[in-house]
Amino acid sequence: MTAHPRTLTADRFEADRPRLRAVAHRLLGSLGEADDAVQETWLRASRADVGEVENLTAWLTTVVSRVSLNMLRSRRTRREEPLELRSGEAGTTGGGGDPAEEALWADEVGVALLVVLDTLGPDERLAFVLHDLFAVPFDAIAPLIERTPATTRQLASRARRRVRGGTAPAADAARQREVVEAFLAATRGGDFDALLALLHPDVALSADRFVVPTPEPVSLSGGRPVAESAMTAAGRARFTGPALLDGRVGLVMAPLGRLRLALLFTVTDERITGIEIVADPDRLAAMEVAVPGV
Length: 294
What we know:
seven-stranded mixed sheet, 13 helices, 54% helix, single chain, elongated
């Protein structure tokens, strides 16, 4: 018995859903918005005559990309929605999705990559994501943004340079990254002893007035006070990942890929001797964020 065309399309759509969700998430940065894009793709696919479509996966990828591109272009309040950063409220994403799942997806993609993608224009973002992350040929991407394949290639190349960054990493970047990642793991895991072991006894922490916020910048010194402060910010760590910040290995906190906080580290002899926390929007905007190890 021949399956009803709609049932056949639904079965195939479900098989492709993980890929479509991944494409939409990398294009939009928000799992909630990605699910909206995938649902819209299903509505279009269920109404379309796909009997003559030879490569349904590629066709669905094109549809979800077009839907996501339209969503990117229609955004009018990007980076303007309020996000409370105080301890205990840092799980809020503002994107309508489950914060825990959002955090898992951000980890899988890389928080730094999501931050860089959020700085790209819609066409650049589409060209880079589809080609570099999903191996879609430029000939197939070009019609989506109404560009030539050559121009589309240039857009992806320009985005790739942004991802890699123009500032050379410090000579000891690999060693610093190990220490910074250990700091993040200890904070996420609530491992106070491991965190304390990473901190120099005389470590100094400074946070600008936008971090809490407070009328004045905040300063702490000593391993135990700094470790205790880090433990209170464990909720933020779910949306935090390693990044190159002006060539230095640090951490960025970026719910939905939107940069809210940067941590700059000074590492001496495998111990953290200094931490600077930056939330000042002007400083964040001027900071070059790149993906480490690309």
